[in-house]
Amino acid sequence: YLNKRKTSISIYDLDQWADSTAPKALADVFEALVGAIFLDFGNCLATVWRVIEPLLRKYIDQSIIHPNLNPIRSFSEHGGKLIKESIDKGGDTQMAVCIVQMPNGSLFEGRDVNKKLAKANACRKAMKQHQHNENMFQQTG
């Protein structure tokens, strides 16, 4: 699945995958894993949770602390604006490119297989930097 989503962004940057949906087969594998644990341990939900919870804890905590707000909406609410959307046709595949700007003038670029995802990536980067700047300000203030 990841090989189909070729981007110039590191696959280790989890934020780029935040709004993507996993293929049905992956959901089926996860469901089968949970079901197998449930059945193998005598229909015990506590055991299922004890096994699965450590895998998901980071994402659960982040969802509680920072609800998964649409990055484009959040970006707009903070006064950001769209600068440019285009299609980069270099190489074998075409890539959508989006450039956005925060009110302080900072520019952020997003790339993905279509304009909507590229815009979401750019806005997510901008909001991540904005959050980082706010955290730094709070620590020094």
UniProtKB/TrEMBL annotation:
Gene3D superfamilies: Ribonuclease III domain (1.10.1520.10). GO terms for molecular function: ribonuclease III activity; RNA binding. Keywords: Hydrolase. The keyword Nucleotide-binding does not apply. InterPro entries: DICER_DSRM (IPR044441), RNase_III_dom (IPR000999), RNase_III_sf (IPR036389). It comes from the Eukaryota. This is RNase III domain-containing protein. Pfam families: Dicer_dsRBD (PF20932). GO terms for biological process: pre-miRNA processing; siRNA processing. Residues 23-42 form the RNase III domain.
